[in-house]
Design brief:
89 residues; mainly beta; Tumour Suppressor Smad4; 8 strands; globular
Length: 89
């Protein structure tokens, strides 16, 4: 079935700054691996947190799509995503 696709401003401890702006999910840019996450605890304002896990089979702009439950480098996992767009693998 797959996991919900993450989008611009979905939450991984803080909003994700999604970069796949030519691939929209529910009208918002799609989050992909290595996208920035707004600085937050426990990293603090000087930490560059990023999405670090993603689908192994679904890509947007040549990069794996980040999904609900995938990890970010700050230690959080993404807790929000699309209600009707899923990505497997």
């Amino acid at each position: 079935m797959g996991q919900s696709v993450a989008r611009l401003n979905d939450i991984c401890g803080a909003p994700i700054v999604a970069s796949a702006n030519t691939v929209l999910t529910n009208g918002r840019p799609t989050a992909v691996i290595n996208d920035a996450v707004v600085p937050h605890f426990p990293c603090g304002p000087h930490c560059a947190s990023r999405t670090c896990t993603a689908s192994s089979s679904v890509y947007a702009q040549g990069r794996p799509v980040h999904r609900l439950g995938d990890a970010c480098s700050c230690g959080h996992s993404t807790s929000t995503g699309s209600s009707n767009v899923k990505a497997g693998g």
